Amino acid sequence: MAPAMDAKTSRISDDDRLLNMWLHNRSGNTARAYRADVGSFRQWADKPLADVVLDDLQGWFDCLKGSDATRRRKLASIKSALAFGVRVGFLDVDVGAALRLKRGRDRLSERILTEEDVRRIIDMEECPRKRVALRVLYFMGLRISEMCALTWRDMTRRQQGGVASVFGKGNKTRHVLVPAKLWKELVAVRADNWRPETPIVPGHDGSPLHLRAAHRLVKRAAKRAGLPDASAHWFRHAHASHALDNGAPAHVVQQTLGHSDLKTTTRYAHVREGDGGANYLKD
């Protein structure tokens, strides 16, 4: 006789089981974002994923609010979940495969701050703790969730500056340089009674800086500098663009940012005036 299901098991839907398998071993931030996207679609469709048809996906996508990039990201989440459901046998048909969108215009350049913009945002921030947070985002090129999660246990001192072990997207660890000046600034805002689990960028009370508080910190600093549209991720864009423009090898920037594909990194490269492939050929 098969064992009886307990109350908790009997209440979970097939869709919930599918999502739990799909999100297994993903990072906390990624899982929360994907679960929110799929939850929004399930609420709109009001039917099990097994009963979803192409019209449902098209109708949901057409009514989504937000930027084109945000709408496409949300759709990609749903398509990924549906494709996974087919691969593991939970769903019979991958209706998401039939929904294809025209490639959108690449607006990355609109989200890259100039070096002068970055300096102005940082210099206008009077609070040392908040200024350090902005400098960490820019000089280390971290995602805001990575910055909030960093503790002194992850930091290794070097003769000049140090190295941070960053646990990032895709559950991958990478080692990121901490410039000497930034290291001194981090030490300056560190509590006297610090421990290995002390955050490198603390909240106002010394506890870990919450993700929402970090976003507010950046938005307020950017607005103060006359750049109300800028977000924390724009500092990461700026790191990539400025490093490449100043001669950093693409593979070094790729490793710093944790890009799995070098093509993602080279999107930030700009052709300098008067430069071209011919300059690198022997005549």
TrEMBL record:
Domain called Tyr recombinase: residue spans: 108-281
Core-binding (CB) domain segment(s): 13-86
Name used for this protein in its record: DNA recombinase
A GO term, aspect molecular function: DNA binding
Source domain of life: Bacteria
Gene3D superfamilies in alphabetical order: 1.10.150.130, Intergrase catalytic core
Keyword DNA-binding: yes
Keyword Transport: no
Record GO biological process: DNA integration; DNA recombination
Pfam families attached to this UniProt entry: Phage_int_SAM_1, Phage_integrase
Family affiliation: Belongs to the 'phage' integrase family.
Record's keyword terms, sorted: DNA integration, DNA recombination, DNA-binding
